[in-house]
Amino acid sequence: MELMRHLALNIPDTSKPRVVIIGAGFGGLNTAMGLSDEKFQVVLFDKHNYHTFQPLLYQVASAGLQADSIAGPLRNLFHKRKDVHFRMLKVQAIDPAANTINTSAGDLKYDYLIISGGAKTNYFGNENVQRFTSALKTIPDALNLRSQLMQLFEWASLNADPNIADHLLNFVLIGAGPTGVEMAGALSELKRHILHKDYPRLDFTKMRIYLLDGLDRVLPPMSAKASARAQRDLEKMGVIIRLNTMVQDYDGETVRIKDGESIKSFCVIWSAGVTGETMPGLPKEWAERGRLLTDSNCRIIGSSNVFAIGDIALMKQEKYPKGHPGMAQPAIQMGKYLAKNLWALHQQQPIKPFNYFDKGSLATIGRGKAVADLPGNIFFGGRIAWYIWLFVHISFLVTFRNKLLVLTNWIWNLFTYDKGNRLIIRPYIRKGDERAKEVFNNNESGS
Amino acid sequence: MELMRHLALNIPDTSKPRVVIIGAGFGGLNTAMGLSDEKFQVVLFDKHNYHTFQPLLYQVASAGLQADSIAGPLRNLFHKRKDVHFRMLKVQAIDPAANTINTSAGDLKYDYLIISGGAKTNYFGNENVQRFTSALKTIPDALNLRSQLMQLFEWASLNADPNIADHLLNFVLIGAGPTGVEMAGALSELKRHILHKDYPRLDFTKMRIYLLDGLDRVLPPMSAKASARAQRDLEKMGVIIRLNTMVQDYDGETVRIKDGESIKSFCVIWSAGVTGETMPGLPKEWAERGRLLTDSNCRIIGSSNVFAIGDIALMKQEKYPKGHPGMAQPAIQMGKYLAKNLWALHQQQPIKPFNYFDKGSLATIGRGKAVADLPGNIFFGGRIAWYIWLFVHISFLVTFRNKLLVLTNWIWNLFTYDKGNRLIIRPYIRKGDERAKEVFNNNESGS
């Protein structure tokens, strides 16, 4: 019997306007949480059954946190809501003319549609890069990367090939935005505090962490001061930073750089760019480079009842002619703005335009090392910035349970210098290197 | 380039006797931890890089705990040891005549070999059962089962097939030992405290949890009092218990029972038996039904320097003519015994035979409900047994970090009735039901 033969969305009909939200990231989740059950029916779609706190994914990848501590089941958040309906399903297409979305479990009419599908990794069309590099956008990405990292060290301890030995401990991070910078710092701390104890017979002076970017500074969205400080701190920690460096290709063992140089590595992490993920069925004129053009009410230009928020939205405002930065804050604020104003829009009342309040940006580099750009051009580096970073990240975790777990882990890590989640649960089999499966014979774990 | 082309075990030669340990479960780990670096070189093999606290796997599967909180990286445990060498590798064969083990990274001579590979699930030769049921012996098993459970509820919320609806919430546990009993209790608590809040539109009066066993009572290794109390408590919690019930087959949707009855279910958990996993190369006369026959010094009968401990060992003693129970305690005690006595054996001094101290056995049924058989035929049920169970399990977790994490989770679960780890990270694709992949389109998560 085919278990998924007859599917239905099973959404009850009500007299209230129905708001369909695609994506339960920071934007969509805040809209769903902020809308009133008295006024709207909310239908929320996501292909995962949990919300991911993306800013801490690199700590899951680097074994500092458990996946479960930065992700929470979505249904938990709506236990007290009477008319929010979550469906774990990928929306396949949208038909704006018919006010309908299409899913594999049937079609659904909407009164309002909020697209908050987020951004996906941009490989700029390079299939090799897409195939062989690791991304860090989702929980499975982070868990795969963690297993890959830990497995490479296990392999290094078993290696007998001098041609490989020199490259096995090379790690290359492409893209020096927050993900690249924070992951480079985390790898450096793993090396400094843990790996030499785990593998006393490996020579970790050979472990090299490269951080590459096509632009002329790290953390390009942050202030020049923050960039300079982050670069200085990372270099002190042994990270090799190559700026103005365009990567051309990666074939699974060699990163080729445009000027002809190359770096051998079996672990390349790609965070060099994101792109919007528009939906089939949307008019072409709604999008610009994969992002959906909206007015200052988050409403897609050309539509009366379809909205876009978060990374996928391109709201050109005077201070943000290229749209808002692709970070949690704009998505959260747009989500809350829409939740607050949708009823007024529904009643065709005038509402104030969205006004992004830039709370600043933060990036952590390591223990006691971070950079913080705060409102009013205030910059902090080092320990103060790190405390701010810790406080802000704990505050923004969605549930109290997540806060408690992250805090427990951090206090533990702080006092012990340990990162205890170094389990290889999702064994990494390098494409084209099937022998690893046979050697470890733990393919049951990958199922 | 093939990354795994030239492998070597890279174990240094010393003048000390070399002890090779296969398997880092309770037995092998305790031997490795107890041996002295001054006297022996220790080489420890496991196919995972972590030790698993198996008694709490069912809590990982039922979303009460994170995987990382009951498993710890093995290398962490040996940071202060100078001559313990862990290798994440499957040992392929043993050549006792040559005192050598064979691995894919080369051969290794041993002076003493300790086989502590544990037990594997026994399907009694039924390939269908092996293919379609879920096991609960490893961390990946537990995470797969958790995703499978949570996904079935998501599917139920999307189901439109009346033929399926009646069976979608049927769960069948085959084998009423501790795993079956504890998992049945955990499922019942999920139903009672969480699922109706997660899925307010599903009718959970239709959710049925079956616990089947071929014997005439649950928890057959425990006292009659414990069996009776566990059965009573489970039945009060709504678990349907079928004793003297032999399962004949399961084809992925129907469990066929010997008397002709059948139960439809899309989630069947098999814990009806274990069997030893002997290694290729061992003389046939060393084994009896997959377990290795040892004398009272844990030494394999017929060998002078090969030992077996834990589930794989069959040490027939007066009080235990069929060997010791397949639980953590005998393995731990044998591991410690061997660590303590190996030097004396090496010096051919007489040692005392192994004497198993039965500390009793425990099983938890639910919040405030457990059964405890303590030494001296003392039985506790209910809340006192539950407190004993909590205390014992926290005490036996290997690292302080694991204790801290489990305790944090339990305190959280206790006060909130929440089980917050309900993430579907390893999507379950039922064999032969590939459409699910397309519907959810989250196959990236399974990589």
Total strand count of chain A, please? 25
Largest interface: A-B, 82 and 82 residues
Q: Count helical runs of chain A.
A: 11
Strand content of chain A: 15-25%
User: Which regions of chain A have little confidence, pLDDT < 50, spanning 5+ residues?
Assistant: 441-447
CATH architecture of the largest domain in chain A: 3-Layer(bba) Sandwich
* Shape estimate of chain A: globular
Residues in helices of chain A, as a percent range: 25-40%
Radius of gyration of chain A: 23 Å
Termini gap of chain A: 22 Å
Mean pLDDT across every amino acid position of chain A? 92
CATH topology of the largest domain in chain A: FAD/NAD(P)-binding domain
Q: Trace the largest sheet of chain A across and list its strands.
A: 5-2-1-9-21
Outline:
The structure is a homodimer. Chain A has 11 helices and 25 strands. The first copy, chain A, is of the alpha/beta class and about 450 residues long.
How are the SSEs ordered, and which strands pair?
Two copies of one chain form a homodimer.
Chain A: E1 18-22, H1 26-34, E2 41-46, E3 50-52, H2 57-61, E4 71-73, E5 84-88, E6 91-95, E7 100-103, E8 106-109, E9 112-115, E10 119-121, H3 127-132, H4 139-158, H5 162-168, E11 170-174, H6 178-198, E12 208-212, H7 224-236, E13 240-242, E14 247-250, E15 254-257, E16 262-264, E17 267-270, E18 274-276, E19 287-288, E20 291-294, E21 306-308, E22 313-315, H8 328-346, E23 361-366, E24 369-374, E25 378-381, H9 382-396, H10 400-416, H11 435-440
Parallel strand pairs in A: 1-2, 1-9, 2-5, 9-21, 11-12, 11-17, 12-13, 20-22
Antiparallel strand pairs in A: 3-4, 6-7, 7-8, 10-18, 14-15, 15-16, 19-20, 23-24, 24-25
Helix pairs in contact in A: 1-8
